[in-house]
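Table 4 source record.
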Amino acid sequence: MAERTIRIVMNGITGRMGYRQHLLRSILAIRDDGGVALPNGDRLQVEPVLVGRNAEKLAKIAKDHAVADWTTDLSAALADDSASVYFDAQVTSGRKDAILAAMARGKHIFTEKPIAETVADGIELVEAAEAAGVTTGVVHDKLYLPGLLKLKRLIDSGFFGRILSVRGEFGYWVFEGDIIPAQRPSWNYRAEDGGGMVLDMFCHWNYVMENLFGRVEAVTAKAVTHIPERWDEQGNKYTATADDAAYGIFELEGGIIAQINSSWAVRVDRGELVEFQVDGTHGSAVAGLFGCRIQHRVRTPKPVWNPDLPTDQDFRAQWEQVPDNTEFTNGFRAQWEQFLTDLDAGRPHPYDLAAGVRGLQLVDAGLQSSNEGRRVEIQQFGGAA
């Protein structure tokens, strides 16, 4: 059994997602478990190089987790030929230039989304990757979550019959920051810094829809800013210039209609922070991050509308849970392992920069629909994921 080591330049790991999900629960967990086990019995060990703007934070993280290399100089990190992969989890506005610089040094790319702020910038990244001959991957973490893996299994087994519709609910109340500190960074609510619900979440919804149900062919959306003023990390009041909620109707190939509400100004009355209900001719399912409940047509009750009497049915009790009959790992780690395995094998990763461009196309179409008050058709970029 042979062991190889991949050094990964990780930019933006002092942020919440970069640190918790990508560094701590993915790369360091892989390292501490002895690397990624490859199909031929070899192991692929990982070694992070931490990059960020705050030297004090970087030094502490490196010390706490026994990471040898860290720097505030991205150019110097990219100049290190011993590191073959660049990962980006910084603010969206800084992502494109950093990825271009990394590809110019021959680095393979794994990045958070959105991959850029515009479709044109995303296409520029795709073309640069093709010219550089590097492998690229874009985080599609929700596809690796237990709830959606169970949902995918139901789809592949034909459980639903013909899928008719999808209804998604995502979000929670993000505090304004005046009395209780906000639990999301303030840049999320400033359009000039790359914030906004549509830019953030429509990229997610595009890959969920195209990989589970079908490509998005048209969208009708409304983006709004429900909370116009918020307070930042220093307690300073600022104007929210980005949308904090988006309500979309998506027309998918095959005639499937998806409706997804996304909001940081909603209080949660559901089992999980995100849930998707899928209805088909033979059955329905409600999938969240972890759970997935189903109701087959032979078990479907027959309620009758009667506004004069309170219902005597417990509708939620009429569904059954799909069991955890396999072992699920952290979704971010699972995709990291797949990306690194694909990279080592010399094959393309299925969720690449072209997929990231399609997410940006849905963002653009959603914002255009909201601004113009109309349905917008989409001619999607690249091949199927």
